[in-house]
Amino acid sequence: xxxxxxxxxxxxxxxxxxxxxxxxxxxxxxxxxxxxxxxxxxxxxxxxxxxxxxxxxxxxxxxxxxxxxxxxxxxxxxxxxxxxxxxxxxxxxxxxxxxxxxxxxxxxxxxxxxxxxxxxxxxxxxxxxxxxxxxxxxxxxxxxxxxxxxxxxxxxxxxxxxxxxxxxxxxxxxxxxxxxxxxxxxxxxxxxxxxxxxxxxxxxxxxxxxxxxxxxxxxxxxxxxxxxxxxxxxxxxxxxxxxxxxxxxxxxxxxxxxxxxxxxxxxxxxxxxxxxxxxxxxxxxxxxxxxxxxxxxxxxxxxxxxxxxxxxxxxxxxxxxxxxxxxxxxxxxxxxxxxxxxxxxxxxxxxxxxxxxxxxxxxxxxxxxxxxxxxxxxxxxxxxxxxxxxxxxxxxxxxxxxxxxxxxxxxxxxxxxxxxxxxxxxxxxxxxxxxxxxxxxxxxxxxxxxx
Length: 451
Known about the structure:
CATH topology of the domain at 104-136 and 154-342: Fumarase C, Chain A, domain 2
Strand content: under 5%
CATH superfamily of the domain at 104-136 and 154-342: Fumarase/aspartase (Central domain)
Oligomer: single chain
Order of helices and strands: HHHHHHEEHEHEHHEHHEHHHHHH
Radius of gyration: 30 Å
């Protein structure tokens, strides 16, 4: 490709911004109607513009629209095609409008739609988590710190931890929606416009909550996109953490879960393999989502007010995040619904370790031993058992008493089930607490709290 071809393609954005066609057309229709209402253009001209734009929308959706890269972007492709269809009235559409506030409008409309889709996908994932928890309320597993078995917990409690994480993501996306819900049209290139515009009319036509207060900020602001990308990055991090656990849990070493064949793949050389590819790819895609956030932050960090052509580079990374995050949320929801548990293995992993050490120390505290002393006693006992290859449940009362005279027969009643049941505090892992948490989660899902 020669220099002429390279330079002619360099500023073209049509190949990615054409996905904004609906927003561009809807915004233009509202603008034309406002111009006619305010008698800035004739009603007949506005009617012709609306009819022409409606036809263009139909042509795009039926793949009959003649896209022309030489027109650079979605806005000029539509505007010039409109002129071909209706003639001179098309030239009046750009009255009292700049491409600066036009593209700002398109992006805000797009972000509102995409955030709503994201919230729907998050809702579906959270519903899958609650269903998974509700189907497995009696399943005990080891909880971990430092990837070391720590204390017994309910599997349902573990799933509800992710329910909480994705709930915070939901709130962040709702806040991003609110900040995107500002109508910028009427700001012009940067200073406003010398026409008797009715911006409130356009706001109502397009379903925005409010109009922008400062024309210079309105055309140069991309914070609402950063809000989405930031929320998406945090959400992707939560997905990645979950993916990491699913990858570990599906190994032969853990053998806690079995992922559906729909979400695993075989090996090109090893017939026995069931690779958790979907979880791994989701984990890997998180880096792309992070990169898109930092890409836009870097674009914006050196820009003086107001509009600069650098802002053309705000879209590809955003679109990539949209195309990455929403499918990932949807896939995860279905992957969880089709995942099966090895309940016996989960329980064995809890019982075949020293996760009851804290409960035994707490038992000594109930007998009047200061906690630090109780901690020392049980720590030494755990080390002795580990050296012998034995577990707490194998100890006799006599052996317990050799460690401390404060041990009595009821120490032998401490089990992973009693440990779980004892943690009956709000937010705890007891059967009762988790049952209540599931009820609360279901109620929250019914409310949805979506934009």
